[in-house]
Amino acid sequence: MATKRNVCLLLNSFDMGGAEGQILLLARLLRDGGRYRPHLACLSRRGILLPEAERLGLGDIPEFPLTGFYDRNMALQLRRFRSFLREREMDLVHTDGFYTNVFGITGGALARLQGRVGFRGETAGWRTPKQDKFERLIFRLAHLVHANSEAVKNYLIERGVPEKRVTVVYNGVDTERVKPMNVARAPALETLGLPRGMPRRFVTIVANMRHDVKDHPMFLRAAKQVSAAVPEAAFVLAGEGELMESLRGLATELGIERDAFFIGRCDHVPELLAVSDVCVLTSKAEGFSNSILEYMAAARPVVATDVGGAREVIEEGESGYLVSSGDDERLATRIIALLREPERAREMGMRGRRIVEEKFSCAVQLERTEEMYDRALAAGSRLRGGKISVPNFGT
What we know:
Number of helices: 14
Number of domains: 2
Shape: elongated
Radius of gyration: 22 Å
Oligomer: single chain
CATH architecture of the largest domain: 3-Layer(aba) Sandwich
Number of strands: 12
CATH superfamily of the largest domain: Glycogen Phosphorylase B
CATH class of the largest domain: Alpha Beta
Strand content: 5-15%
CATH topology of the largest domain: Rossmann fold
């Protein structure tokens, strides 16, 4: 049996987020049956997902805390990271976002790793122009850049990243963890803190409230219109962040505060999706939404804004609907139609489940990721021996 190659999966932190969740899912898949041996490292050992990472049993998770990109600490942490990569005999490093791209790809170049894989998981709207430019410079040190959708790939190519250096590997979803559930409705609603009295039709959005790019106000404006047409509708906002209080205020201003339920971070996503009738995403920009995958894996009909890679997973009119960003009237119209046609909604949800099983399962994600690693190592082998120029991060 061939010896497994070592890959360092570098996370920014263990906060609840799409990129972090995908890295931990990938680490588990590689551990359980991959051709590469995963190792975790991070810039910050904080976050709700840290216990999950430790339960993977991959050994200690070293931390390389940063205070900036242009100070002595950056140089110190890069030396530590280079030593870690060499001592653990890493063959590749695979990062998870802007900060780990800058740190991990630079450290991988200093350690002269054969494979360096950067990551971009969003299009516009998340980073400043200066950060975008800096990241593109760092990508020159990567053998491949992992884009999580064709939309992100095109975004990078349009901004000067060579097409041959960008490869698409879609996010995966554990279809067994998030699957259609026959749950006892009353206990599930009690667990989630949702009303159990009069029959309600739940319209759900799962998105963090840390960044206005998720555009929860669009969801709430549509909710007001849906409520007028379907009085039994209720609206569930799952996610946490500093924008929550202002969003509560907007719900009150719109007069739907009694029908809008802010449940915070949700540890019972399968149960939440099981009691939801329609699931929504209103982002102004995305790369490839994990929430959409989870909605579809749970056989829920989806209405999402047509941004990023949404149309690469949603088949318009078959597994869900796409609407323009900011168009709350169209969003409301689509939600109302699905609430009024439950059989149509059920069929769309089941179609979405089949799409996820065929194209976005764990098995597909593992296969595509390992193909990407093979390509990165091959590219690194061809380029080995050349001069490496890295940014000056202090003395």
